[in-house]
Amino acid sequence: MSTSNGEKSLIVSFGEMLIDFVPTVSGVSLSEAPGFIKAPGGAPANVAIAVARLGGRAAFVGKLGDDEFGHMLAGILKQNGVSAEGINFDTGARTALAFVTLRSDGEREFMFYRNPSADMLLRPDELNLDLIRSAKVFHYGSISLIVEPCRSAHLKAMEVAKEAGALLSYDPNLRLPLWPSKEEAKKQILSIWDKAEVIKVSDEELMFLTGSDNVDDETALSLWHDNLKLLLVTLGEKGCNYYTKSFRGSVDPFHVDAVDTTGAGDSYVGALLCNIVDDRSVLEDEARLREVLRFANACGAITTTKKGAIPALPTVSEVETLLNAN
């Protein structure tokens, strides 16, 4: 579903990149874990690598610590074909770390080390505006809204991308432990809601943002706004629901043996963005959109079958194998 890099338009992903420390054994608490493995992550960085892995053109914009971990992460982006022109290094703050427990069902619990971490200290004047202006899609989350100066950098980057004609894509990627309170999380996540043209939320995020116990169409559409072209609700192993101005529906999941859900949503988003960056008319053509979402569901599913986010992000041939088998 993708052509060679040379003809591709640029997808710029903005936000945090960090290292997850994952226990060497699953299903234990952090205190019980005998050891940990480094797993590079951070949702916006995962999306950028997901795009590149699928043959798209991606860049990451954010700040890392001027430390071994920060340079390791920048190296991982480059090794995976993601442009690192938008990365700044902070000499005074460390790269963010997170300790993640994998429960026996593959779901995660987090403990973060960010006080403050380098990603939080990105300033508006450090942004690579030329890179941001060259984006056809500008993708971001909400973690970069939590504190200044990163929040101002986020808002400025969004504004510059929009003025240059980029499609704005938003995956709030709720991490409650990072916010001062639930109320603040909801308020800030919704503070930029009406700017995005593509929004993806999980079923849990939908319930959090609406205060509803349902993930039905009515609940989802309460989040609709006039600038939106596509609202997606991912339902984990139940597939996804989609909403546009003209149509709505759901796309079935792929059933796989899930080992680790980390990065599945990022893989899904990367696949979607890859397939709309050069042709936004897909968003108005239900048959084609369903094909793209089936491809995205396959990407998400494959990502759950291996441990860690980045190693598990699929190539086009892996996705085609799964699509052809179903």
Automatic annotation (TrEMBL):
Catalytic activity: D-fructose + ATP = D-fructose 6-phosphate + ADP + H(+)
InterPro entries on file: Carboh/pur_kinase_PfkB_CS, PfkB_Carbo_kinase, PfkB_dom, Ribo/fructo_kinase, Ribokinase-like
Pathway it works in: Glycan biosynthesis; starch biosynthesis
EC numbers, comma separated: 2.7.1.4
Keyword Transport on entry: no
Top-level taxonomic group: Eukaryota
Molecular functions (GO terms): ATP binding; fructokinase activity
One Gene Ontology cellular component: cytosol
Pfam families from the UniProt entry: PfkB
PROSITE patterns registered for this protein in UniProt: PFKB_KINASES_1, PFKB_KINASES_2
Ranges where the Carbohydrate kinase PfkB domain occurs: 9-315
One biological process term in Gene Ontology: fructose metabolic process
Family of this protein: Belongs to the carbohydrate kinase PfkB family.
Role, per record: May play an important role in maintaining the flux of carbon towards starch formation.
Protein name as catalogued: fructokinase
Annotated organism of origin: Brassica campestris (Field mustard)
